[in-house]
Amino acid sequence: MTQTPLNVIMLGPPGAGKGTQSGRLAKNYTVPKISTGDSLREEVTRSSPLGILAKATMDAGHLVSDDVMVALVKERLSRPDTDRGFVLDGFPRTVPQAKALDALMAERNRGGLIALQIIVPLEELFRRLYIRRICAACGTDAAPGTPEDAVCAKCGGELIHRTDDSEDVVRERLRVFEAQTEPLVAYYQSGSAASVFFKIDGNQPLDAVTGQIREAVERAAVKTKVTL
Fold it and tell me: Where are the domains of the chain?
């Protein structure tokens, strides 16, 4: 009998902890974590045409176009390591992207989606974004609570503050999120094609958030007939 894949998407504003929790979830269930943000930053580091365009957009606090994001995700989901499922971090961010993902899932014919929304108060988001650092060499986010004199745990590179985490840009990013991404929550809450939706309290210690996410996934797996 063919196993139904575990297909998860993480929703939430910048600073909500999607990257950390997506990594933990993917590792726990042995499926790939697909971070569109990391993929775009890799293109920026390579100074590819896409990277140059994306850098100007991200530095201004705006979202990269739907067409570019959908093409990036479609290519990634075509790889064989996603046959058992995936955890998507940073996609979809708009309703058109969500509808495009529904179409991709229908093409794959490999199960539905589990949508998890991580909720964090605005003032806590500001605090997290101001102290967040990223590796200058490989683009990996530093774990919360990393000491100031630490280096990147992945490659040993220097940890720096992201260019898109200045006060003005942070405010703009959160404004863009509220205007363009909040309708996405309504889309999944109302029940998009073959999806289930859960809200997660992200204003807790990391392990508590991880536990709540795992409980939600286990409940969703029963509804979507996923074998964990």
Answer: 6-121+166-224
The residue annotated as part of the active site, out of 24, 55, 76, 162, is 162
Task: Answer whether 0.90 is exceeded by the pTM.
Answer: no
Alpha-carbon gap, residue 59 to 35, rounded angstroms: 18
For 50-164, where are the E strands, in sequence order?
85-89, 113-119, 133-135, 159-161
Which residue positions in the chain have pLDDT lower than 50? 1
Active site residue 93: yes
Reply yes or no on whether 223 is catalytic.
Answer: no
Residue 35 sits at the vertex; the CA angle it makes with 34 and 39, to the nearest 5 degrees, is 110
* Architecture of the 6-121+166-224 domain: 3-Layer(aba) Sandwich (3.40)
Catalytic site residue from 41, 128, 133, 173: 173
Which entry of 18, 24, 133, 214 is annotated as an active-site residue? 18
What residues contact 37, with CB distance under 8 A and at least 6 apart?
A: 19, 89, 90
Residue 17's SS3 state is coil
Indicate if 79 belongs to the active site: no
Is the peptide bond between 183 and the residue preceding it cis, with omega within 30 degrees of 0? no
pLDDT in tens, 106-135: 887 777 899 999 999 888 887 787 777 888
Q: Is 46 a catalytic residue?
A: no
* Residues 115 and 22 sit within 8 Å (Cβ to Cβ): no
List the structure tokens of 181.
Answer: 């991404």
